[in-house]
Amino acid sequence: WCPRAIIYDPLKVGSIDGTDCQPHDRAIIRAQNADYKSNKKVKGDPECTIFVTRLHPKTTERHLKEVFSRFGEIVRCRVVEDLVTGRSRGYGFVEFKSSTTALMAYKRGNKTIINGSEVFVDMECERLLPGWVPRRLGGGFNGKKESGQLRFGGRERPFRKPIKLLSKKELIISLSDKLNKPKDQVLKESSLIAAKLSEISNK
């Protein structure tokens, strides 16, 4: 058992303990049916990149660099903007020169106040978490209780420990079927992600 999702399964992250067998909202079904591929145009090393959200509308790339450069050398910052209006969509990415400084920013930069807003920091999921589906397609993590579309297994809302745990063999078989990947590949990918999460938790 792991409190964080090591492979993104829309059905599981829609459950408080990761054990649901049926979707409880239509967004989960939408995420299950999404054929999402990560953006190949995204530059940089995902191991060295953090995701920063809940940004103030006036927060710019310069602000991000000023705040996060205290953790180490930054390669690039990007605030994601709406293609039509050009306004900030409230989140961005900061790439550091090393994964060590990115990990430090992840650990210490969360809940930093920038322009009056408390930001949320996570590692980049799109290129690091197999099976990832973004929020706009019904996936993602967190969410608001009022929407009835909470997502678990992330930093802010980890899974609760279920009453009955699957064995490692049962879990690998289940994930292999869902991701349509060989069991050996799923085992290798999940082991690497579990090791990374352990490193994050212990530092």
UniProtKB/TrEMBL annotation:
Q: What is its main location?
A: nucleus
Biological processes annotated in GO: mRNA splicing, via spliceosome
Entry annotated with the keyword RNA-binding: yes
| Classification via SUPFAM superfamilies | RNA-binding domain, RBD
Species, as recorded: Panstrongylus megistus
- Alphabetical UniProt keywords: Nucleus, Ribonucleoprotein, RNA-binding
A cellular component annotation (GO) from this entry: precatalytic spliceosome
Q: Which residues form the RRM domain?
A: 48-126
Location in the cell reads:
Nucleus
Q: What is this protein called?
A: U11/U12 small nuclear ribonucleoprotein 35 kDa protein
Gene3D superfamilies this protein is in? 3.30.70.330
Q: Which GO terms describe its molecular function?
A: mRNA binding; snRNA binding
